[in-house]
Design goal:
Radius of gyration: 26 Å
CATH architecture of the domain at 95-255: Orthogonal Bundle
Largest sheet: 6 strands, antiparallel
Strand order of the largest sheet: 1-2-3-4-6-5
Number of strands: 15
Helix content: 25-40%
Bound molecules: adenosine-5'-triphosphate, magnesium ion
Shape: elongated
CATH class of the domain at 95-255: Mainly Alpha
Low-confidence stretches: 167-173, 273-328, 430-435
CATH topology of the domain at 95-255: Transferase(Phosphotransferase), domain 1
Structural class: alpha+beta
Mean pLDDT: 79
Number of helices: 16
Distance between the termini: 19 Å
Length: 435
């Protein structure tokens, strides 16, 4: 990955790693046609399928493509291969806002400017029924001019599933930015929960530290649920008042976005002839365009029900499943075949028998081969699975399900791959190179 230059869908050159999140990695990319820099968020489709999020993700992406605002990271397009989903987003060159705060608290005017931009983005999205639900430092980015860009807007499905998984407490570190009603898992209003997080963010910008903090997690929850925090004495009284209205543990009495936008401290420095939040409406794409993006590029999950796009992406050279994982690390490979499933499985059975692998399970579309010797990482077992793409066209997936990776790779390279040529129509990814 570091040494090889990769091109995604013949459109984006994939560059350095920008960061890593719960669901995948973010890479720098460059549009080969326009030279424009983009951020490519790569998500493992399996993870999304596992948490049952495909439908919700599709819905959210279609909504997200409707959100065009100067303070929201723009989603350019969504692409998918058999195993990955790629979000092609606006690239925020300035990195995370909180790298600035890490160097020390911000001046009041500077903090206010970011807060205004944040509220402008939130207001715009809320008005369209889109909630963030995961506002936190990693999602506040800056562009090259220092303009705030909120990322991951509309991907609530991901935030929610992290929470349900209990990941909130682990991967995402502390729940410092999360509203009390979200922590206590009461049904909650996405708008009010986002407002709470904005309050925590404002506090951090001005103070340089968190309002709710404790080395003991339970103690921290307690403080959040009671709205127990203390403003440093250098906070202007107007800010203290505004914060007390935002960090109200009761979502019902918590201030609304509309009220925040009327607040005199908030309004300072704003061009009063323009109303924040409504000035940035741009041409919205036609709903039909959006559906198109989502339908053609996302509906690839069902292996036995692939569409034309899948077939293209499965043709040699188009499959990108190996793109971000070098072949050395992968314990699976795929190829397409025009032979019948019966012929394909018989071939594997025959080769397996020759190298001392025994068939332990077989049905119409799959086969398991197992070694008889205990390797150092347990018995080697390999699954071969066939997916129907069309009447004569099949995708075959060969995967190690247990045992030692080195044994597996050695077996594949030496005994299996060289002998299945007659059933292979096209290798997927770069498998042919590793032969
Ligand atoms: P989570 O797992 O909760 O989503 P996260 O927001 O940190 O956490 P990602 O959204 O996957 O995870 O982003 C990972 C990192 O990549 C971010 O912290 C940020 O530094 C960087 N990044 C994300 N999007 C962009 C972008 N559009 N431009 C530049 N850098 C980005
Ligand atoms: Mg993010």
């Amino acid at each position: 990955m570091e040494t090889k230059e990769k091109v995604l869908m013949q459109k984006y050159e994939v560059g350095r790693l920008l960061g890593q999140g719960t669901f995948g990695k973010v890479y720098y990319g460059r549009n080969l046609k326009t030279g424009e820099g983009v951020a490519l968020k790569v998500i493992d489709k399996e993870k999304v399928v596992k948490v049952g999020l495909i439908d919700q993700t599709k819905r959210e992406i279609s909504v997200m493509s409707l959100i065009k605002h100067q303070n929201v990271v723009n989603l350019h397009e969504v692409m998918a291969t058999k195993t990955k989903i790629y979000f092609v987003m606006e690239y925020a060159k300035g990195g995370e806002l909180f790298h600035k705060v890490a160097k020390g608290r911000l001046k009041e005017d500077v903090a206010r400017k970011y807060f205004q931009q944040l509220i402008s983005a939130i207001s715009f999205c809320h008005a369209r029924g889109v909630y963030h639900r995961d506002l936190k430092p990693e999602n506040l980015l800056l562009d090259e001019y220092g303009v705030l860009k909120v990322s991951d807007f509309g991907l609530s499905a991901f935030s929610e599933s992290k929470r349900q998984d209990g990941l909130l407490h682990t991967t995402c570190g502390t729940p410092a930015y999360v509203a009390p009603e979200v922590i206590s898992r009461r049904g909650y209003d996405g708008a009010k929960a986002d407002i709470w997080s904005c309050g925590v963010i404002l506090f951090v910008l001005l103070a340089g530290y968190l309002p709710f903090h404790d080395s003991n997690l339970m103690e921290m929850y307690r403080k959040i649920s009671r709205g127990e925090y203390k403003c440093p004495n250098w906070f202007p009284p107007e800010v203290k008042r505004l914060l007390s209205r935002i960090l109200d543990p009761n979502p019902k009495s918590r201030i609304s976005i509309a009220r925040i936008m009327e607040n005199p401290w908030f309004r300072k420095g704003l061009n009063t002839s323009k109303k924040v939040g409504v000035l940035d409406v741009e041409k919205l794409p036609e709903p039909s365009e959006v559906v198109n993006v989502v339908e053609t590029k996302m509906e690839l999950a069902k292996p036995s029900n692939l569409n034309a796009f899948d077939i293209i992406s499965l043709s040699a050279g188009f499959d990108l499943s190996g793109l971000f994982v070098s072949n050395d690390e992968k314990d699976e490979f795929q190829f397409t075949s025009v032979k019948s499933p019966c012929t394909i499985l018989s071939k594997f059975e025959e080769i397996g028998a020759n190298v001392g692998l025994k068939m332990t399970k077989k049905d119409r579309g799959s086969l398991r081969l197992e070694g008889s010797n205990e390797g150092k990482n347990g018995n080697l077992s390999i699954d071969i699975e066939i997916f129907e793409i069309g009447p004569v066209f099949h995708l075959v997936e060969v995967k190690k399900c247990s045992g030692d990776s080195i044994d597996y790779r050695c077996l594949m390279r030496r005994d299996i791959k060289p002998k299945i040529g007659e059933i292979v129509w096209a290798w997927q990814g770069e498998q042919q190179l590793s032969n």
